[in-house]
């Protein structure tokens, strides 16, 4: 299987702190997602290995590697 991108700390005030371990490949970006009822909503694109997002209204959050600018 694939190695995990890193870790996420879910905070009680509905913020999530991502700490990503893998270097960002050239021409790609990290994109955070909020998940609710089988649907995904972008929470932003990031080029740093540590970033924070709010996730009020979502059941879960995640991150993916995407082309520059996100999908």
Written description of the protein model:
The mean pLDDT is 90. The chain is mostly beta strands and 71 residues long.
> What is the string of helix and strand elements?
EEEEEE
Number of helices: 0
Regions with little confidence, pLDDT below 50 for 5+ residues: none
Which percent range describes the beta-strand content?
over 45%
Q: Report the principal-axis shape.
A: globular
The first-to-last residue Cα distance is: 23 Å
Give the key terms.
single chain; 71 residues; mainly beta; three-stranded antiparallel sheet; 0% helix; 58% strand
SSE order and pairing:
Elements: E1 6-10, E2 15-20, E3 28-36, E4 39-46, E5 50-54, E6 60-67
Précis, in short:
Strands 1-2-5 form a three-stranded antiparallel beta sheet, with no helix packed on it. The chain is 0% helix and 58% strand.
